[in-house]
Amino acid sequence: MTIDELDVRLITLLHAEPRVGVLEASRRLGVARGTVQARLDRLTAGGVITGFGPDVDPAALGYTVTAFVTLHIRQVSGHDPVAGLLARIPEVLEVHTITGGDDMLCRVVARSNADLQRVIDLIVDVEGVVRTSSVIALDTPVVYRVLPLVAAAPRHGTR
Length: 159
Fold this sequence. Notes:
By secondary structure, the protein is of the alpha+beta class. It contains six helices and four strands, in the order H-H-H-E-H-E-E-H-E-H. Helix 1 (5-16) runs antiparallel to helix 6 (147-156) and helix 2 (22-29) packs across helix 3. It is elongated and about 55 Å long. 16% of the residues are buried. The model has no long low-confidence stretch (mean pLDDT 94).
């Protein structure tokens, strides 16, 4: 999907102020309300904007440990059954299938290092998981971000 500078400005505004209304966004961007609504509809239908929910910091909920866990799985029935079972563990925030020596990568959170062991034990108990390896994140100097990609998209072209 191709986006232009107005799309970039709209996405940037929504990122900074997710609760801004369509009318206020149109005022700030200097375009008609219908233009903003049409852009939002197009960006949502095209999969560029995937949600409008609040960002939640796990640390604020007491989950101060972040770890990345790689999984080696039995691939008899593929990745999907394992991913479905991992999705039932609340502390598993993301699961990716990966290339290399292991099969999956999970981002998990825990309340402490001891609690991380509990989470890893839950992961190891998932049918199909053969072994795990984990690393604990010490800091996050660059948090998850997409605005630089959004800003670069009109210059580099998107599909």
